[in-house]
Amino acid sequence: MKTRRWVLWGVGLVVVAAAVVLGTRPQPVPAELAEVMRGPLEVTIDEEGETRVRDRFVISAPLAGRVLRIELEPGDAVVAGETVLAIFLPSAPVLLDARSRAEAEAAVQTATAALGQAEAHYERAAAELVYSRSEAGRYLRLSQEGIVSVETMESAQLDLDTRQEAVEAADYAVRTARSELQAARVRLLRFSAESAEDVNGTAIRIVSPVSGVVLRRVRESESVVPAGEALLEVGDPGKIEVVTDYLSKDAVRMRSGQRVLIDRWGGDRPLQGRLRRVEPSGFTKISALGVEEQRVNVVIDIVDPPAVWAGLGDGFRVETRVVVWESEDELKAPTGALFRRDENWAVFAVAGGRAALREIEVGERNAREAQVLGGLEPGEQVVVYPSDSLNDGSPVSAEL
Predict the structure, then answer these.
(1) Of 245, 176, 236, whose CA–CA distance to 55 is shortest?
(2) Which of 62, 91, 139, 272 could form a disulfide with 303 if both were Cys (CB 3.0 to 4.6 A apart)?
(3) What whole-number distance in Å separates Cα of residue 4 and Cα of residue 64?
(4) What is the C-alpha separation between 217 and 388, in angstroms, rounded?
(5) How far apart are CA 188 and CA 199, in angstroms?
């Protein structure tokens, strides 16, 4: 009985010791693992943008007046030089009051009198020129016969030249008086009831300057508009570009000709684009969080043929990804595996079922992958999104 009791105590002690050992042994930390491998890598700068027609024409009222109802609807086709976009009636001039009209009539009478006076001066100067020319001819003949002196002959010639210049001056005065009379009559005619009827009876037909479609109709119903009032917008929907405002610090890395991926536009695959221009001037924009940001517009051309993006129109939302760096063969690791250790990048590599803290050198990276320049080899596994409970040497179990 004693022996049996000692055996039972021994077995109990062994069970207790085993339980203590199992309870104090570190448990494997579940973790998501990823393999370090070689492959293509590209770095993009992503932002939301919108499409716009490259050549947009805003049709506006040429004068103050009345525009008739515009029947064209957005999307209707227009032909350059043929399609009438709007019919415009210039407004009648403002009629003068009695005093202003009397002043305008008096100005016409004054200009008429001035013209009569100028014509009279011209007639007198012309008559004096005829007489002076006759006298000069007579003195010339007498001078040839030696009857009159040379001084008398020169005096007659001088008088003839003077009369000639007087006729020219009188002619200029008549022209000036006629112009002033015409201007006075126009001012009076401009504010007359007859001219108002003539102006209102003249309709201006505004034709399309480009072939395309109506993009937007600003005015629909008949209304009175001032000069320069926008009526509608037209453009060619086959010439679409994408404009995106990027942060100025990101726009510094962009150059004309860089490849662009245009995504979330409604198609089943991203469109291929090409960066055409980074505008030289930025602007301030308030973000959704109320933060002031300096942004720069970037203009992108769509490289794919129009048949691929036929449903894309003006002002549609898209997402653009400008490729600022790319390589076909790079050693890369998931960006989620990286974390900062002091001033360096580090990862938890998995070897023999345990995590090994390892500092690595990182190059270019995007939201998903990073270029590994040193510290890891192809085929190694790293922990993605390591938890706070994971330490150097901790056992690791892969999550299913």
Answers:
(1) 236
(2) 272
(3) 119
(4) 60
(5) 15
Tens digit of each residue's pLDDT (9 = 90 or more) over 314-368: 999 999 999 999 999 999 999 999 999 888 999 999 988 888 999 999 999 998 9
Q: Give the residue among 210, 195, 181 at the shortest CA–CA distance from 91.
A: 195
Q: Are 238 and 312 in contact (CB under 8 A)?
A: no
Cβ atoms of 215 and 235 closer than 8 Å: yes
CB 66 within 8 A of CB 223: yes
What one-character DSSP code corresponds to residue 82? T
CA 203 to each of CA 6, 58, 79, 241: distance values in angstroms, whole numbers, following the listed order: 123, 20, 21, 37
Residue 219: name the closest of 67, 87, 56 by CA: 67
Are 103 and 148 within 8 A, CB to CB? no
Task: Single out the residue of 70, 63, 53, 57 nearest to residue 208, CA to CA.
Answer: 57
- Residue 332, token pair as written in the block: 């890369």
- Model-wide pTM > 0.70: no
pLDDT, tens digit (0-9, with 9 covering 90-100), for 233-273: 999 888 899 999 999 999 999 999 999 999 999 989 999 99
Q: Which residues contact 228 (CB under 8 A, 6 or more apart)?
A: 60, 61
Rounded distance between C-alpha atoms, residue 308 and residue 303, angstroms: 10
- Rounded distance, CA 14 to CA 222, Å? 102
How far apart CA 217 and CA 196 sit, in angstroms, is 30
C-beta of residue 251 within 8 angstroms of C-beta of residue 278? yes
Task: Of 41, 9, 19, 22, give the one whose Cα is nearest residue 364.
Answer: 41
Cα 186 to Cα 201: distance, rounded to the nearest angstrom: 19
**Residue 337 carries which DSSP code?**
G
Q: And the tokens for 2?
A: 């004693």
Burial class (CB in 10 A: 0-12, 13-18, 19+), 372: buried
Q: What is the DSSP letter of 14?
A: H
Q: Which among 346, 220, 295 is positioned nearest to 45, based on CA atoms?
A: 295
Would you give the DSSP letter of residue 335?
G
Residue 198 CB neighbour total at 10 angstroms: 12
CA 287 to chain centroid, in Å, comes to 20
- 65 has which bridge partners? 90, 225
